[in-house]
Amino acid sequence: MPRIRWIEDGEAGPELAEVYAQIRESSPRGAVAPILRTMSLRPDFLAAIHTASQVHFSDGALTRAQHEMIAAYVSALNRCHY
Fold first, then answer.
1. Which of 3, 13, 32, 78 shows its CA 20 to 30 Å from the CA of 40?
2. SS3 letters for the chain?
3. For 4-50, what is each residue's pLDDT tens digit?
4. For residues 43 and 67, what is the distance between their CA atoms, to the nearest angstrom?
5. Cβ proximity of 42 and 50 under 8 Å
6. What confidence tens digit (pLDDT) does each residue in 46-68 have?
């Protein structure tokens, strides 16, 4: 049971359903991660975070794999399972 309330797929209104669809389309797993669902009460904010995430994790000076490795390392340092 999450401590932060979020909206499940079946309860999503049109705006949130569209954001969830965009996230699934760009996700390597084809899913909406729980950390993103915590922002589902604000679909506008969730959409902005998703856009920023796509830029952050795109290949540039670092590959997506390198970005993910750094994020995982920092999460481990902070004892955060995300």
1. 78
2. CCCCCCCCHHHCCHHHHHHHHHHHHHCCCCCCCHHHHCCCCCHHHHHHHHHHHHHHCCCCCCCHHHHHHHHHHHHHHCCCCC
3. 889 999 999 999 999 999 999 988 889 999 989 999 999 999 999 99
4. 25
5. no
6. 999 999 988 877 778 888 889 88
